[in-house]
Amino acid sequence: MLAKSHGLTFDDARTREPALAAHASILAVLAVLADASEATYPERDALTRALLAEQQRTPSELWSAALLLAYAPMLTRLRGRLLSSAVDRDELDLLVIEAFLEAAQGYPLCVRRPGHTALYLRQDTQRAVFKLLKLEHRRAEVTGELGDEDEIVPLGELVPSERDPETEARELEEMVALLRARAGDTVPADRLDLVERTYLRGESLRDVVVAANPGVTGDALDAVYQRTKRQRARAIERLRDVFPEGHEAPLPAQSAW
């Protein structure tokens, strides 16, 4: 990254990307991207988009290395939660890197994704990882590389690992803010609150219904529960309309409703 040729590449990019123009070197950019404070979020988002734009315009070791370094904590957390009988540990490391660079190369820098770039880049990377793992599992099955005692981890199944509670809380609030920013004028506040509590914060729908209807029991409570469940399903349908092509909502798949 400190090679003279990369310095020239960075200087050239500064003439096109206003976010990069304010920084003298790629190291200065990385210093800002390493600052996790809320105050720097808008600048970090703009810098990430600038790096993605340059990588997509003219792929270079400079841009790919900068993105990998900037998002190393996210990639490390993702890697720490993966387990596969079809892929060994070192290959899993490379698979995560490959998936991230694939996500970066195909990231849609368009008006439909005007912000929250880190959140969507993480989602895109996770999808790419699971896609690659699924292909490796199928290949291992066909070639007989998995023994009878080996277990194929289902697509998307992750092994929990120790995570920083502050990081988890920040990522959750990012998803909540994203949903509210996109859907605040489309989905009624009470329905949006219902989706947030049951899907993002993990509360039981029945517990939410019981708490909101003290004294209601039996068939009456079941009727309220079913009505609330339908309201939530309709809210999610409207949310998905708010997140058009290339802009996936941070919600469960339809089959999970």
Write the layout of secondary structure elements.
Elements: H1 4-14, H2 18-21, H3 26-33, H4 41-57, H5 61-70, H6 72-80, H7 89-106, H8 117-143, H9 165-183, H10 189-200, H11 205-212, H12 218-242
Helix pairs in contact: 4-5, 7-8, 10-12, 11-12
Number of strands: 0
Order of helix and strand elements from N to C terminus: HHHHHHHHHHHH
3D shape? elongated
Structural class, from secondary structure content?
mainly alpha
Proportion in β-strands:
under 5%
Low-confidence stretches: 146-163, 244-248, 252-257
Notes on the structure:
- There is one protein chain.
- With 257 residues, the protein is mainly α.
- The chain has 3 domains: 1-68, no CATH class; 71-161; 165-256, no CATH class.
- Helix content is 65%, strand content 0%.
- It has 12 helices and no strands.
- The chain has helices spanning 4-14, 18-21, 26-33, 41-57, 61-70, 72-80, 89-106, 117-143, 165-183, 189-200, 205-212, 218-242.
- Helix 4 runs antiparallel to helix 5 (61-70), helix 7 (89-106) crosses helix 8 (117-143) and helix 11 packs across helix 12 (218-242).
- The longest helix has 27 residues, at 117-143.
- The radius of gyration is 22 Å and the shape is elongated.
- Mean pLDDT is 77; it is low at 146-163, 244-248 and 252-257.
